Amino acid sequence: MGLLNGPAGGLSRTGEHTHAPFPLTTTTPMWMKDDMRRPWAVIVRTLCIAALAATGLATTTTTAAATATELPRWGFAVVRGGAVVDSRRQAGSWPDELKVEATAGDPGQVLVRFPQIGMAAGGVAHVTAISQSADWCQIQGWWQSGADEIVAVQCHRYGVGPIASWFSVTFGYSPQYLPAPQAFGYVHWNGSAVAARFNSSAPTAVNTAEPLTAPGLWRVTLPRLGSADYAGNIQVTAVDSAVPARCKLGGWNTTTAAQSIVVRCYDATGTPLNTGWSLTYHRERALTWTPPSYRFAYTFDNLPDTPGVYRPTPYQVSYNSQSGGVQLSRSAVARRQVIFGGLSGYRDNVQVTAFGYGSEFCNLFTPWESYSAYVSIRYVTCYNGAVQVDHPAMITYLTR
Fold this sequence. Notes:
Largest sheet: 6 strands, antiparallel
Order of helices and strands: HEEEEEEEEEEEEEEEEEEEEEEEEEEE
């Protein structure tokens, strides 16, 4: 499967870590106490047992139904300070001659126009800030405008407010099904109900989202996308048009029957917040439903304080469609370099999601760099407030 099993293009792999961050045989649910002094191996192990009590918020489900005759709609782009779309980092399910456009709105707001993929309803969007400061970006919403799809992005800097940050954004709608072990599923929670969902296993498999007792917590269940071991990648993004919000992956448990995922959301100060969000789970597939000519890779930096190069375990949390290897290393506190071998190219995209029980969040320190034999993501940087900290994160990449 191309899982961290050998470098390519001159990559080396030394100092492999042997800690197992997940309780692979544990069946008793566990709960995490808020103790930041615990080693990451223990923190991640506990968070991956996502068993929490449900609460009683009503969820009237509205979904965009998929049919076998529909085609996927997808797009991605990088927008630089303000509203300048990077011509080399945009692509989508539209003719090549068409281009993504962006328009600045309110402070920190950008309206991104994806051509010819407009939808009346459905799909999910994700965004990641690219900044050397404690910036994060959220989605305010998406809607059809003529033949196009508009995705509204709002960026903030911790302790400052709205900011014209660089960011990487995706939009995708998926109507087609997959054979196992490939898996793809998403959920859009609009603040009170599931507004869109898709499960690649079968039309009868219905993803659910359940608010939990504490504010800012949900449990997402993706039936029939389960795995015997932890495998795949998860991206979570806040969706709120009214207030600053950020969301992350707060817990993960898997069985052969389903993926069970906890979403955690916070306001600008780090207080738990009931808000909207998008979640995508993908295994041996790209984050968006791209054609076979597109290449992709993902990994889970689940031991971020490891001093040298290491391989995340279990191995299935990393994947490279080119079997080119995956390499993680620590440049400094809170700065993680990710190298995906055999994936050099252009028209590419990176998304990052923090993993954990606190209000920490992650972004990209700089845009990623593509070389002849590999792509270098330097660096994934995480924050607790305005302070850079080591924190687990999921990273996913795709390229034409």
